[in-house]
Amino acid sequence: MIKAAVIGATGYAGQELVRILSSHPQVSIQALTSRSYAGKKYEEVYSNYSHLDYSCEEENIEELAENCDVIFLALPHGVTSKAVNENILSKCKIIDLGADFRLSDVETYEKWYTTHYSKDILKEAVYGLCEIHRDEIKGKRIVGNPGCYTTCSILSLYPLVKEKMIDVNSIIIDAKSGATGAGRGLSLPNHYCELNESVKAYKIANHRHTPEIEEQLSLAAGEEVVLNFTPHLMPMDRGILATCYANLKGNYSYEDIEKVYKKYYENEYFIRLCKKGTFPETKWVKASNFVDIGFTVDERTKRVIVIGAIDNLFKGAAGQAVQNMNILFGLDEKTGIDHVPVFPA
Question: Could you confirm whether 68 is annotated as catalytic?
Answer without folding.
Answer: no
